[in-house]
């Protein structure tokens, strides 16, 4: 069961809130439609329920607010907008990545593909899907963790009749298994046809809270659509004859002066009336009309009443029905705002009554200093990180072709540069093996590692897959550590492959005598590993801070272009002391007894950091880590 109590969005620049004191209930085992015209606050209400927007109120999912649910994906399945997936990722790859985020087995992806009818399109790219298939994938993403509650924003928008019927059939099937379904729509006929309970809102306020049968009886009425160049004259004649015959016929003049809607009559009667008076008719059809959530100005011939009667009685609807419940449910007997069903928290009892007589139970809202009852404050909370972050990051990284393409281009470019450098014979062998000429600020391997690191976070902001709302990207330390570990492993692997491919290319072109193992291979390996991993981390952190891939690439290039010249420009004093014995002093300081063979690694690391490039990269990484932690702590980071 879903209970929304006192939802009120924050005011912006003095404008009225998009959602104002909205209270309703969506029961288990039924489909609930949140109905309203465009701009009525439907999407804002859903975002308030999911704690994606600040405001006031509380939403209980089976008695618990969302931030108290341990695994939200297993409680609530959400569809807001389109599927936020990389267009080059396959359908199955997208769902497997989301499986790692939700903490469910990867086999669940095939189960939901079968459930939504996408088994044959598992290897299809997301960017090539039609709108109907895209909606099926969106529903599969929402069902991935088998949640109890489904919240969907305009799920049938733009779909054909066949696809819309299939979608609503899936929603009813989920409700029949005991789940709760809430979806928004602006079509009252769709709500009456596919939902068992309809909640109508307008301007962010509750207008009606009804069962589907009551909604259809009071909101949707059969009518005759008439189009005539003499519509005003025809309306007057039909109204006059209805009053004379004391029949409950209602004539509504539409926005177009040539169109009428006649309630309580038939096409034959309207056609005969027009024929008797010689009035041409261009259209005459039976329709189901939407009377709207509030009364409108109507030209009525109601039971012989005068022109001041509002014509609310239609054929088959008695005055007792209207006064007993119909008008109250539709909000037509309301006060100054025209909405009698506006729900407000009850004082002291902790119960909130909805328009249809339901009661949403929950703790009583807190009172402000002036003594007025206020619902609790809704704080915008960042989306949670994946439950299996390393598995998620690996599937995200290798689920698109760009990763393989960057690695392949890096290897080919490194091999070509190595062959050209070896031909001149002026560069030392280590520079030849890593393909780093003096003209380039960084070798191709470091640039490739930095680009992969920048894409690691940049794509998270372009195609957010871990949040219900667009643009909200998780900034979790657990996810950050997973990205750092995966990007470091990929950078080390890329650096090793570059050296091996370059050595093999040199042996193939110039013979085996050229490639010799250097005597200082250990320090060279440490410095090469530090350069590739440092570039990958610099790109990753900068993309996470500035939320764009280009910022990560710029941070990588800034190390040799800006930082290294600045460090080299600092005057250096003559070396008066030596750092020999540093490993032993560190061992005494930390009380750690590591093997003496590790002393060489410590000294090699110190020499790498003392190098201008190493110093520049270390300073850049330190600044980026501090900036990332600062921005994350402002977003209330949690593990």
Coarse structural class: alpha+beta
Shape: elongated
Rounded to the nearest angstrom, the distance between the terminal CA atoms is: 29 Å
Low-confidence stretches: 295-364
Strand runs, count: 17
Count of individual helical segments? 21
How much is the average pLDDT? Answer: 80
Helix coverage percent of residues?
40-55%
Largest sheet: spatial strand order? 5-6-7-3-8-9
- Rg estimate, integer Å: 34 Å
Any key phrases for this structure?
single chain; 639 residues; alpha+beta; five-stranded antiparallel beta sheet; elongated
Task: Give the structure's gist in a few sentences.
With 639 residues, the protein is an alpha+beta fold.
Question: Explain this structure to me?
Answer:
The protein contains 21 helices and 17 strands. 47% of the residues lie in helices and 14% in strands. It is elongated, with a radius of gyration of 34 Å. It is α+β, with helices and mostly antiparallel strands. Strands 5-6-7-3-8-9 form a 6-stranded mixed sheet, with helices on both faces. A 5-stranded antiparallel sheet has the order 13-10-12-11-14. A 4-stranded antiparallel sheet has the order 2-1-4-17, with helices on one face. 43% of the residues are buried.
List the helices and strands and how they pair.
Layout: E1 2-9, E2 22-26, E3 30-35, H1 42-49, E4 55-61, H2 72-75, E5 76-79, H3 91-102, H4 107-115, H5 131-143, E6 149-152, H6 161-176, E7 180-185, H7 188-194, E8 197-202, E9 205-211, H8 212-219, E10 220-227, H9 231-245, E11 248-253, E12 259-263, H10 267-276, E13 283-290, E14 299-302, H11 319-330, E15 351-353, E16 359-361, E17 377-378, H12 389-398, H13 401-424, H14 429-433, H15 444-462, H16 477-510, H17 521-546, H18 549-569, H19 582-590, H20 598-610, H21 612-634
Parallel strand pairs: 3-7, 3-8, 5-6, 6-7
Antiparallel strand pairs: 1-2, 1-4, 4-17, 8-9, 10-12, 10-13, 11-12, 11-14, 15-16
């Amino acid at each position: 069961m879903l209970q929304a109590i006192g939802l009120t969005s924050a005011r912006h620049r003095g404008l009225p809130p998009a959602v104002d004191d909205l209270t309703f209930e969506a029961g288990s085992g039924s489909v609930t439609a949140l109905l309203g015209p465009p701009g009525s606050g439907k999407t804002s209400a859903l975002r308030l329920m999911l704690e994606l927007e600040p405001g006031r109120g509380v939403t209980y999912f089976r008695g618990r607010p969302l931030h108290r649910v341990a695994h939200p994906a297993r409680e609530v399945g959400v569809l807001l907008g389109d599927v936020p997936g990389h267009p080059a990722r396959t359908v199955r790859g997208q769902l497997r990545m989301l499986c790692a985020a939700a903490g469910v087995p990867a086999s669940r992806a095939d189960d939901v593909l079968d459930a939504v009818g996408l088994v044959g399109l598992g290897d299809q790219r997301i960017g090539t899907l039609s709108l109907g298939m895209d909606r099926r994938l969106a529903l599969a993403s929402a069902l991935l963790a088998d949640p109890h509650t489904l919240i969907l924003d305009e799920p049938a928008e733009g779909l054909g009749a066949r696809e819309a019927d299939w979608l609503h059939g899936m929603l009813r099937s989920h409700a029949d298994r005991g789940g709760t379904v809430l979806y928004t729509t602006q079509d009252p006929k769709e709500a009456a046809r596919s939902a068992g309970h309809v909640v109508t809102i307008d301007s962010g306020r509750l207008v009606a809270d009804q069962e589907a049968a009551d909604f259809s009886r009071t909101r949707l009425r059969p009518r005759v659509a008439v189009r005539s160049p003499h519509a005003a004259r025809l309306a007057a004649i039909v109204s006059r004859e209805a009053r004379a015959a004391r029949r409950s016929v209602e004539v509504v003049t539409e926005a177009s002066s040539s169109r009428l809607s006649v309630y309580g009559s038939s096409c034959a009667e309207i056609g005969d009336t027009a024929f008797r008076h010689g009035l041409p008719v261009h259209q005459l059809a039976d329709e189901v009309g939407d009377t709207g959530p509030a009364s409108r100005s109507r030209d009525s011939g109601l039971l012989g009443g005068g022109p001041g009667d509002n014509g609310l009685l239609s054929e088959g609807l008695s005055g007792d029905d209207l006064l007993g419940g119909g008008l109250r449910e539709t909000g037509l007997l309301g006060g100054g705002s025209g909405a009698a069903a506006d729900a407000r928290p009850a004082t002291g009892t902790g119960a909130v009554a909805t328009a249809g007589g339901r009661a949403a139970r929950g703790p009583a809202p807190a009172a402000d200093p002036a003594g007025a009852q206020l619902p609790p404050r809704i704080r915008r909370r960042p989306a949670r990180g994946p439950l299996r972050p390393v598995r998620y990051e690996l599937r995200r990284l290798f689920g698109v072709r760009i990763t393989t393409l960057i690695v392949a281009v890096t290897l080919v470019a490194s091999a070509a540069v190595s062959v050209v450098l070896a031909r001149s014979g002026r560069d030392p062998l280590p520079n030849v093996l890593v393909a780093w000429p003096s003209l380039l600020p960084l070798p191709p391997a470091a640039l490739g590692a930095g680009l992969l690191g920048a894409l690691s976070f940049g794509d998270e902001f372009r195609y957010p897959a871990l949040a219900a709302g667009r643009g909200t990207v998780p900034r979790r330390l657990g996810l950050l550590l997973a990205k750092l570990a995966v990007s470091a492993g990929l950078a080390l692997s890329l650096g090793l492959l570059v050296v091996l491919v370059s050595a093999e290319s040199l042996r193939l072109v110039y013979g085996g005598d050229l490639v010799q193992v250097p005597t200082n291979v250990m320090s060279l390996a440490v410095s090469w590993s530090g350069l590739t991993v440092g570039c990958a981390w610099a790109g990753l952190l900068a993309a996470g801070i500035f939320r764009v891939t280009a910022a990560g690439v710029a941070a990588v290039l800034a190390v040799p272009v800006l930082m290294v010249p600045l460090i080299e420009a600092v005057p250096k004093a003559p070396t008066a002391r030596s750092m020999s014995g540093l490993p032993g002093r560190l061992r005494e300081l930390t009380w750690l007894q590591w093997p003496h063979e590790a002393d060489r690694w410590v000294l090699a690391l110190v020499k790498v950091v003392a190098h201008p490039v190493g110093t520049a990269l270390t300073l850049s990484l330190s600044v980026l880590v501090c900036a990332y932690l600062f921005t994350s702590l402002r977003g209330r980071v949690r593990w």
